[in-house]
Amino acid sequence: MRKRFLAVLPAVAAWTLLAASPASASVTWDGEASQGTGVFGSIECPAPGGVVGAAQTDGHGTVWRYTKAVGLDRCESRGIRVGGAKYVFQNNSTYYLGWESKLSATSLPTGDFVVFQWKSYPNATQNYPLLMTVNNDRVNLVYVGTDAAWHTIWSAPVAAWDWHRFVLAIHTSDSATGGWTELWFDGVKQTFTNGATRYTGRTWDSANEPKWGVYDRDHPDSEVVNRIDSLRLGTAYADVD
After folding, report:
1. What tens digit of pLDDT does each residue of 178-187 get?
2. Alpha helices of 157-232 — where are they, by DSSP H?
3. Are 65 and 51 in contact (CB under 8 A)?
4. pTM (predicted TM-score)
5. Are 114 and 214 in contact (CB under 8 A)?
6. Are 142 and 150 in contact (CB under 8 A)?
7. Residue 230 C-alpha from the chain's centroid
8. Cβ atoms 113, 215 nearer than 8 A
9. Is the distance from CB of 119 to CB of 113 less than 8 angstroms?
10. What pLDDT, in 10s, does the model give residues 37-78?
11. Comparing C-alpha atoms, which of 31, 39, 97, 102 is closest to residue 65?
12. Which tens digit of pLDDT belongs to each residue from 100-141?
């Protein structure tokens, strides 16, 4: 079950958001936990960590529970499968990825940890064009160009054990000015540090795939659990909201 954040907005604002959303084309991928881990391309989560479907008592039903165990640096899913086959993302295409997330921790002693990656395979010029990181009770969207410099382009406060809804639009391009990203947080389209609702940059390398979960090489002694619900991939905002 997904939260409907528009229900708490004034009627006019909610109508405006709905009217501005692109018409639905199709849901390319449904990553609900009830279907099992076969919806993912692969799982990168060594024991004693794991990625499992876990029943919730907060109205979310069965969700994904990614547990990064003590002593390890990651617990992630890599890529997706559609109809049993690995889905191949393409250059010069637009994708909308939607999900909800609830974290067991949102602040660690130092540094940050990664909960989403738009990862390049094999690592060529641009290792990960887009990352979502968490620390100091904030979630951040980070753009990383070919120079490997991290640029925080958006940030918002979060707290442990609270659900939040994300929709990330990515237009893929291996040109420095051809790609772009847009972000909705809890149903509201966000403004980036450039003052616009679209951030332009190179978003494609040799090949790219989404990764969800927890990656944190700086805090191997900390367990972090990321619960994820309502994973979707589509070609329009309405497909994944």
Report:
1. 999 999 999 9
2. none
3. yes
4. 0.88
5. yes
6. yes
7. 11
8. yes
9. no
10. 999 999 999 999 999 999 988 889 999 999 999 999 999 999
11. 102
12. 999 999 998 878 899 999 999 987 799 999 999 999 999 999
d(CA 40, CA 209): 11
Phi-psi map region of 27: left, alpha, beta (phi>0 left; psi -120 to 50 alpha): beta
Vertex 140: Cα angle to 241 and 158 (nearest 5):
75
Can you give the C-alpha Rg of the chain in angstroms? 17
User: Residues 71, 196: contact at Cβ < 8 Å?
Assistant: no
Q: 87 exposed, middle or buried (CB, 10 Å; 0-12, 13-18, 19+)?
A: middle
State yes or no: cis peptide before 22, omega within 30 of 0.
no
3-class SS string, 72-120: CCEEEEEEEEECCEECCCCCCCEEEEEEEEEECCCCCCCCCEEEEEEEE
* 240 within 8 A of 233, measured Cβ to Cβ: yes
Q: What is the C-alpha separation between 26 and 44, in angstroms, rounded?
A: 29
Mean pLDDT, all residues of the chain: 89
Looking at the predicted structure, is the pLDDT value of residue 20 above 50?
no
* pLDDT value for 206: 87
Predicted pLDDT of residue 50? 96
Whether the Cβ atoms of residue 62 and residue 54 lie closer than 8 Å to each other: yes
DSSP state of 58: S
Vertex 139 angle, CA 117 and 108, to 5°:
95
The H-or-E segment that residue 20 falls in is helix 11-20
Please give the single-letter amino acid code of residue 215: Y
Residue with tokens 């540094």: 111
